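Minutes, project check-in
Item: structure for the 305-residue chain
Input as provided by the requester:
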Amino acid sequence: MTQRYPDFIWHNGEIKRWQDATVHVMAHGLHYGSSVFEGIRCYETANGHAIFRLTEHNRRLFSSAKIYEMPIPYTVEQINQACRDVIKANSLGQCYLRPIAYRDLGGFGLSADCPTSVAVAAWNMGRYLGADVIERGIDACVSSWQRFAPNTIPAGAKAGGNYLSGQLIAREARRLGFGEGIALASTGLLSEGAGEHLLLVFDGALHTTPISAALLNGITRNSIITLARDHGLTVVERDIPREFLYLCDELFMCGTAAEITPIRSVDGRQVGTGKPGPVTLKMQELFFGLFSGKTADKYSWLEPA
């Protein structure tokens, strides 16, 4: 199927036609992975379209750039407005946003000083892992590829180069017939999915791996933890061995793209009943309730589009 691209994109301070937002083939970011980006969703709500945790996402964009000493020539507020502008330019409602900052054409060495270019795209995404996965769940596998070790590549930056690891994990899973891959950390303990965080349920409590397990400090993950604790669920952040994937009562992935996706089996072993369990369904209800109005947004997470 031919990809239908949006008409407009925000690039270096202005709205341009999609085809006009070009990058030179010798740009630093293309050769060395020197880019940082965000994934943000805009939802349809009872009060109009709203962007979920827009400011937190774009603050993290700047934090990622800081780690890589990449100055961004705009403010968080300007990038927030660029997100709104590109939604409006494309006449979009519910959609996915992709702000990205990258080292553009400049010097040719690893440490070369290059100008930072910034773009924001928006498009209709739908369900990231499949049309019906929120309801049915997916089958996952533990990947043969591990996440990077501490003090090698900073997992705390949402950098383009980091996602080479995720590509290997995801493509291996698809090749083997699974919906998504799960990675171990260099310790041999659980890390995360190819591009999602993991939450396991034992006796009604949520268990998730710590940030030190080569994780990005996920905003959706933080939202799930906050919602769970505020609604009386216990959340435990701890090191988790691989085999606990087979022993937990329920298991799901979360992320901006994946939202809350149940996992019904891992490595061919059924998880729980093989269907989304009561805690998973409760977290879906609370999360999606933020947009339907059933869950009170006392956190000010929804920003008008």
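Outcome recorded: The chain has a mean pLDDT of 96.
No further action items on this chain.
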